[in-house]
Every structure is written in structure tokens, then in C-alpha cells.
Design goal:
about 475 residues; 4-stranded antiparallel beta sheet; about 15% helix; 7-stranded mixed beta sheet; alpha+beta
């Protein structure tokens, strides 16, 4: 009797590297008219690719061959831009003509495809975001569009928002579309103080947007980050300028696009800023290029923020690792592609036909693949994070039962317990060293056979002081940041 037990499908990864340019299904593959949006889910370093049926396009007779993924949110879905000719979806600087249509791909579920090694998923819901009535179908900049899942909704409620900050204008403009609404709404926001010049004469060219901690963060890679909670009745913009690993006047100008050398992403629940930089006068040239990561630390409830340097790794250290030496990756400065959402030390880089990941804390090459054009049919070779995006897989696919907020709380509790344990161990070590020192002093005292009352009092006071300090050590709030 034959066994009817089927081989279980592979477990989907927790996140994937997603090609921002989606595939348009051919018309003969879409004849039924009900084909769904689908995506493969290979584990990194594999690159997932989204397939879009032609009937979703606003002009199926002349579909855009490069639909572009603007934003990827674990709960809210994928925000896709479908352009109208002669534009393509990946053209982020719009021209003054009918430009694009925004759709939100939602409610992803696993898809069983016999014979495929990788897990797949399909979107059960495709929501068309209405055009803005105030400016027609165009946006000021597709780079400035962000997607935010409302806290506690699990992605059921969401908001799409665009921030416009023009030089010479008194206020910033925030345009929002909320789920369930029929039209966009607009807000006038006070511009924050921008050091060095008055706010009115300082524009803000947005390069990218990330969502974190209930806020949207609009990134200008040459200046910093503007952020606010678009769900507030009166949103308030705040400015966080970027730190400098090397002072600007002492940096070597790379001559490359800013996207190649800088990236901002959320990893392990915090905003991370990564950059390539090199100081002038370094005799070793490109080998002295530094790959640095900064973490944005927020002190609640007052909201005070500052940047904390997490790691600095010389490119030469990565080149000298055994794994890099045995690979065929050239000795050249790569371009930033992605940051692992779960491990901030894992940075994904692009160099020529190679996509590879390095551990910046250890300065080691972890893995690499060759990006084949016939395997990943991009319109052009990948050159930075403009072509790739990390997408945390929805719980509807991974089978997770906890809400995102609860997962974050559990992660935070575990991290706090870990920090507390480290502080306790360090306090124990301090106490042990102190007792050893006191024991040595007492032995020296007995050897000299000195019976000074004052010396005994000094020893007792020192013992009480050190013991008290080591007990309080683990409760000092500032010590947390030394273990981040």
C-alpha cells in the first residue's frame, strides 16, 4: 500500500531580499483574468521577485514593464507604483505629465507550487490608492512616499503619506491617505529649526522613507532625517542630523551616487545609519575606506535622541578575511544594498555581478552569490538599495500567532534582561576584584604587624563604598548604552 504522506513544504524565511522591480505576466499567462500577484520567498542571499498580472495595470494594452516597489511593510503590505507610458515605475523623479498609479498589495498567504524549492506567497487583496485631487494623479516625489501600519491593527489599518519641504516656503506640507477614506488629506506643519541657516531657505530633498516606532522618517542622505507621527491631529516635525564618522571637510569625495555610500534602515527595532567614508591623506587608498554603523538612540518619555557609534570596520579588514580571499569578488569599494532586519551587523553589499553579506562587527565575509541577468531579469544591473529592499514576511505566511506589537515587547524584554545580566556579571567581577585587593592589603598589613586604628577605618570605609557602588552599578540607567 502506497503512502499518501506528502513531503512538507519548506518553512518560509522570516525576511527576504526583494527585487524592487516586479515582473509583468505575459498576456497569454493572464488570459483567465483572475491571476493573483505572487512572489517567491528564497532565504537570503536569494532574491525574491514579485509577479504582477497585466490586468492590474491601468493601461493593459501598454503595460509598464518595470513596476516598482516603493515600500515594504510586514503588516500593511507592498506599495507598488505602476507608471503610464512613456514613464516606467522605477522613475522616481516624475515629469509633468500623467505619471503613475499606486496600488497596495495586501493579505499575503502561502502558495503551494509543486516542484519548487522555495516557498511562494500570493496577495489576496489589491487596493488602488486614489489619485490626489489637489495635484491630479502626480506626486511631488515618489521617493517621499511612506507606508505606516496603525499600531495594534496588525496591518488592517494603514496610512500612506508624502512629505513636501520646499525652499522659500514657510511650512512643510504633509499629504495623507488613510485606509477606509475616499480622498487624501493635507496638513501644514511647522518646519523645525535647521542649524546653519533659517528654515525658510532650506529645502529638503527626500531620498527614502522608513517606518519605525509609529512614525515615518523622511531621509535626506546629505542632511539627516525629518520625522513625525502622521496619525496625530497636529503632527510635529523633528530633525535628527546625521553624525560624522569623519568630519566633512576631511572626507575624500567618492564621486559616486549618495545611494551607493549611505543607507538608513530599521534593524532589530532601531534605526541604523550606515555609510562608507574615508579620511583625506590615507596612504593605503581604498583599503582605508571605513564601513561605519550608527544607531539612533531615543530616550523616553522626553524623546531626546542622539547617535551612538556601533561599529567601524576598515574595508581592508574584510578583504583580508579568509572567505573574501577565496572568493572571486574584486578588491573594490562595493555599494550598499540592504541591512538585515534581524541582525544589524549583517550588511548586504553589491559589487559588479556579486551580491554578498559581511559581518561588520567581525570584519568577515559571510556569504556571496553571483547575480545572473537571466535568473534575475533586471532592466539594468543592480547598483544599490534602490534596486533591492528587505521585506519582513507577514505572520499570515510564517504562521506567527503573536501581534507585531507583542513580538516587539517580548524582544525588548529579552534585550533588557540580557543587559541586566551583563551589568550584574560586571558588578560581580568588580566586587571580586575589590575583595582581592582588600585581601592583599590586609595580608600586607598583617605582615608589617601594624596596628593602626586609622588604617583599619580606611579599609572598612573603602570596603563599604566599593560594595555600595557595585550594588548600585547594575541599576544606573546610563550603563545600558555601553552594552548596545
Amino acid at each position: 500500500m502506497e503512502s499518501t504522506q506528502s513531503t512538507p513544504s519548506p518553512a518560509p524565511p522570516r525576511w527576504v531580499i526583494l527585487d524592487r522591480v516586479a515582473l509583468v505576466c505575459a498576456e497569454e499567462d493572464d488570459a483567465a483574468g483572475d491571476q493573483l500577484v505572487s512572489a517567491s520567498l528564497p532565504a537570503p542571499l536569494g532574491v525574491a521577485r514579485l509577479s504582477v498580472p497585466v490586468h492590474l495595470h491601468p493601461d493593459p494594452a501598454a503595460p509598464d514593464q518595470c513596476p516598482y516597489i516603493l515600500f515594504a511593510d510586514r503588516d500593511a503590505g507592498l506599495l507598488l507604483n505602476l507608471a503610464k507610458g512613456p514613464l516606467t515605475g522605477l522613475e522616481l523623479a516624475l515629469r509633468p505629465q500623467p505619471a503613475s498609479t499606486l496600488v497596495l498589495l495586501r493579505d499575503f498567504i502561502p502558495e503551494v507550487v509543486p516542484g519548487e524549492a522555495d516557498e511562494r506567497c500570493t496577495a489576496r487583496s489589491v487596493v488602488r490608492i486614489p489619485d490626489r485631487e489637489d495635484r491630479g494623479p502626480r506626486m511631488a516625489s515618489l521617493k517621499a512616499l511612506g507606508l505606516l501600519s496603525l499600531p495594534g491593527s496588525g496591518g488592517a489599518e494603514y496610512m500612506v503619506a508624502e512629505l513636501c519641504v520646499h525652499s522659500g516656503v514657510q511650512y512643510a506640507s504633509l499629504f495623507c491617505f488613510r485606509s477606509g477614506a475616499t480622498a487624501w488629506t493635507g496638513h501644514k506643519l511647522c518646519r523645525p529649526d535647521m542649524p546653519g541657516r533659517t528654515s525658510v531657505y532650506w529645502g529638503w530633498d527626500v531620498d527614502d522613507v522608513v517606518a519605525h516606532d509609529g512614525n515615518l522618517w523622511w531621509i535626506s542622505l546629505k542632511r539627516g532625517i525629518l520625522s513625525c507621527n502622521p496619525l496625530d491631529e497636529q503632527p510635529v516635525l523633528r530633525l535628527d542630523e546625521f553624525p560624522e564618522t569623519v568630519a566633512e571637510e576631511c572626507q575624500v569625495q567618492s564621486g559616486r551616487s549618495v545611494e551607493a555610500d549611505m543607507i538608513v534602515r530599521v534593524s532589530r527595532g532601531r534605526i541604523r545609519y550606515v555609510e562608507f567614508t574615508r579620511a583625506m591623506g590615507e596612504p593605503s587608498g581604498a583599503r582605508a575606506t571605513m564601513l561605519s554603523m550608527w544607531t539612533l538612540v531615543t530616550c523616553k518619555p522626553d524623546g531626546l535622541t542622539w547617535w551612538k557609534l556601533r561599529t567601524v570596520t576598515m574595508l581592508d579588514q574584510i578583504w583580508q578575511s579568509d572567505a573574501y580571499k577565496t572568493s572571486n569578488i574584486p578588491l573594490d569599494i562595493p555599494m550598499l544594498a540592504a541591512i538585515s532586519p534581524s541582525d544589524p551587523d549583517s550588511i548586504f553589499l553589491l559589487l559588479g555581478q556579486y551580491l554578498f553579506v559581511v559581518d561588520v562587527a567581525e570584519g568577515q565575509l559571510l556569504d556571496s552569490i553571483v547575480v545572473q541577468p537571466d535568473t534575475i531579469p533586471l532592466p539594468c544591473p543592480p547598483n544599490s538599495w534602490r534596486n533591492l529592499i528587505a521585506w519582513e514576511i507577514p505572520v499570515s505566511i510564517t504562521g506567527g500567532k503573536l501581534e507585531y506589537k507583542n513580538i516587539s515587547q517580548v524582544s525588548l524584554l529579552l534585550q533588557n534582561e540580557k543587559m541586566q545580566l551583563k551589568r550584574s556579571l560586571y558588578a560581580v567581577k568588580m566586587r571580586e576584584d575589590t575583595l582581592n585587593m582588600l585581601e592583599e592589603r590586609l595580608l600586607q598589613h598583617n605582615a608589617k604587624q601594624e596596628d593602626s586604628t586609622w588604617e583599619k577605618i580606611q579599609i572598612v570605609l573603602l570596603c563599604v563604598l566599593i560594595t555600595g557602588l557595585t550594588v548600585l552599578f547594575q541599576f544606573w540607567p546610563w550603563i545600558v548604552h555601553d552594552f548596545v
